[in-house]
Amino acid sequence: MKREIYVFNDGEIRRKDNTLLFETEESKKYIPVEEVNNIWFFGEVTLNKSFLDFVSQKEICLHFFNYYGYYSGSFYPREHLNSGYVILKQAENYLDYEKRMVLAREIIKTAAKNILVILKYYNSRGVDLEYRIDSIAEKLDKMRDVKTIEQLMALEGNIRDEYYSCFNKIIKNPDFEFRTRSKRPPLDNINSLISFGNAIMYTTVLGEIYQTQLDPRIGYLHATNERRFTLNLDIAEIFKPIIVDRTIFSLLNKGTITDKDFEKDFNGILISEKGRKKFLEEYNGKLDTAIKHPYLNLNVSYKRLIRLELYKIQKHITENQPYQGFVARW
What we know:
Elements: E1 3-7, E2 11-16, E3 19-23, E4 28-31, E5 36-41, E6 45-46, H1 49-57, E7 61-65, E8 71-75, H2 84-95, H3 97-123, H4 130-142, H5 149-164, H6 167-170, H7 189-209, H8 231-253, E9 262-263, E10 270-271, H9 273-288, E11 290-292, E12 299-301, H10 302-319
Parallel strand pairs: 1-5, 2-6, 5-7
Antiparallel strand pairs: 2-3, 3-4, 7-8, 9-10, 11-12
Helix pairs in contact: 2-3, 3-4, 3-5, 3-8, 4-5, 7-8, 7-10, 8-9
C-alpha cells in the first residue's frame, strides 16, 4: 500500500521535475510521488495548476483542513478507473428504494455490530457495560423491521447516544470527561478528538474509493443530494468504532494525549497541532495493523479492509453477490 503524507507546516508545494518539492522558509523536502496515495494539508500551503495537473496524473488525492482543524475539502483527481456500467448500477441501486434499503440496512447494522465489539471487549475487562450492550443489541434487532432510511438513521442515532454514554467508563483518565456529542465547535476535549478523527476517516475512505470503479457521489445510507461525496460517509460508519474510537481510547488511557494538547480560545475546544500529530501517529498505526482475514486466509491491514469493503459493495451492485459488512474481531 502507498504512503499517506501529512503536511503541517506553512509553505509552497510544487512539481520539481518528476517529483514534488515542499518548501518552507527553513527547509526543502522532496516527496516521491510514486509512493504516495493521499496528502493531507493542515498548514497554509501555496500551490499552482502545474502541481494539480501532476498529482492528477499520478492519481494522488489531496485533502485540506483549515487552521482550526476542520475539513475544508478534497482535490479528487480525474477518475481513472470509473466504469460507466458500475456508475449506472450504483445509480440503479440508489433510485430503487428497496435496493437502497438493503445496502443502507447492512451498512448501519455492521456499524452497530462493530460498536458492540468495542463494548464487549471492555466489558470483558471489568468495565460494567452489560446494560448498554443489551440495549444496543435490542435496537440492532429492530433494524430488521424498519421500512425507511429515516427510521434506520433514527435507530442509529439512539445507538450512538448509548455508545457515547459509555465513553466515561471506558476512558480511565480523570482529565477527560465526555458530556454529550457536540460539533462545530466541539465543547470538550473528547468531542474534539471524535470530530477530528471522523474527518480523517472520511477522507481516508475517499482516498480508497478513488482506487476502485465506484463513484463517491452515490451513497446509500446518506442521501445523495447537495453533498459532494456520500459513499465515503457510508463506509466510514463501519470503521469509525474500530479505528477512530479505538485510537481515542488508546491515546487517552495511555496518557499520550493530555489536556495541554487542546486549545480553548475559539468558543469551543480544538485539538492543537501537537495533538493532531499524536492522533495521526496512533491512527496510522491502527490502519497499518494486520489481522487474519476471516475468509481470505491472509493477513490484511485495516486500510486494506476498507478497500475490500468497497469491492464487496461493487460486487453487490454488479454481480448480485449479497453484501455482508466487515465485523471486527478484537
